[in-house]
Amino acid sequence: MNSKTYIWQDKTKAARGNLSWQLNMKSFGGNKVFYKTEKEARVELKKFLDKEKKELEDSDTWTIHDLLGEFPDKSMMVEWDKRILLVQPLRTFYFAEYVRMKRGKPLPDYFDSYKSIFKSILDINIGNITVGNLLPMNLTVEHCETFILPTLENSGKNGKRSYKTVCEMRSRFNKLMSFAKKRKLISQNPMLEATYDKPLIQEALPLEKISTQYIEDLERAAPKSLLIAYRFAYSTGVRAGEQRALTWNDIWMESFEANINKSAKKKMVDVDTGEIISYGVGYAKTRTSNRIIPIPAPILRELKELFIKLGRPNGKSLVFCTKYGGTIAPSRWKEQLQAVAKKINGKHIRWHDLRHYYASRMLEYYIGDIWTVSNLMGHSNTDITERVYGHWMRDLKKQTKLREDSQKIWGS
Questions:
Q1: 8-state DSSP, 179
Q2: 212, burial (CB in 10 Å: exposed 0-12, middle 13-18, buried 19+)
Q3: Which residues of the chain have pLDDT under 50?
Q4: Residue of 176, 193, 208, 327 whose CA lies nearest to 266
Q5: Which segments within 162-275 are labelled E, that is strand?
Q6: pLDDT score at 143
Q7: What pLDDT score was predicted for residue 29?
Q8: For residue 189, what are the contacts with CB-CB under 8 A and spacing of at least 6?
Q9: Is pTM, for the whole model, over 0.90?
């Protein structure tokens, strides 16, 4: 290793007569340490690199579980702060992520919800050994394709996991394997080379179209506290996360439009108690999710009334929020809507189904103009609109053709 990478002189400190020779240990999980002379800094660097070499040699016997390290609690984090200060890093994944967070990065999800993801993967059996007890170098592409990915797909709490969920779990494991590669425990990440194809959309199970009559029945039975959020959802087609993240700055009352540019994200959890702390707001789902959509005049009138009722809040305040101004929990609207549906006919309905209802109305109005509908929905391309709503579009074309044929045969 070239010592120049880690040691240099701070001319400003030298001019002031302070300790000026800097030993930068950040890449090892430590901090900057200053010495009086370059020789002192070199001696300390050699001591550390000798110790580092020994630790790297010992880690050849580490299992994947050893590489991950123990899940941190608050007392462990206190110990880790001392290690960072004294330049005594642990060469484990969790510790490396903690160091990254201490340098100004946001606290990673590995310290809450992803704990269960790693446990699910490391507990998978490969023959008579678990993934966690394997040496990283012994993990193969075949292991990933034959054991890990199929098990993740078929071992969800409610049956099969979705393709998206499995890919998210895979990406967390990929990061662990990238760390193993950085530590020279593996030369290639086998999970990256493993094939996991996206399943085809089942044409035999198309989306059920919700009737306008049913939407109106739900509206009449809905509690007053839910009404404006409900009406906004089915008349704009925004995703629930986008709606929960809307601020008053995003409601353009003069032009009857809403600026969709962010989304409420996953819950943040206390690492010790598991208690939900808050719901954050981040970027929109994709680049094309950033869009400007029209707001129907009746909905805008209700929003203006709400704005006045709330005492004309500042532009950064959430439009749809808790009574304390916080972000609404993702399950809140869904549970309220399902309770209403249960009273009416006992059928299951999701909040996302209101978005599908909006899509059906737009497709009926913009017959043959899939580009406009795709933009209103915030889809990344028209292929997604075609894939999700293709059967509705084909039905509409068929109905239109039959109507035109009837007029040709019998006259208009």
A1: H
A2: exposed
A3: 1-3, 201-205, 268-277
A4: 327
A5: 251-252, 257-260, 262-269
A6: 93
A7: 53
A8: 174, 177, 178, 180, 181
A9: no
